[in-house]
């Protein structure tokens, strides 16, 4: 069992930390500005997906088949 002095010191440290909750300097907060995918890669991906969908629609329309 810890001594009374140790318990008092731990209690003071705990109460000091409770009062500081949520007061983190802005320099320590991580900023989520980095995009996982670049805008050029996203554009290429959309071009391929939309282009292939349009190509498929035109092929089906020109051949006269039902979807």
Automatic annotation (TrEMBL):
GO cellular component: endoplasmic reticulum membrane
BP GO terms, sorted: endoplasmic reticulum unfolded protein response
Membrane topology: Single-pass membrane protein
A Pfam family that the UniProt record links to this protein: RAMP4
Top-rank lineage group of the source organism: Eukaryota
Coiled-coil annotated spans: none
TM segment ranges: 40-61
Keywords for the protein's UniProt record, in alphabetical order: Endoplasmic reticulum, Membrane, Transmembrane, Transmembrane helix
InterPro entries: ER_stress-assoc
Name assigned to this protein: Ribosome associated membrane protein RAMP4
Taxonomic source organism: Paramecium sonneborni
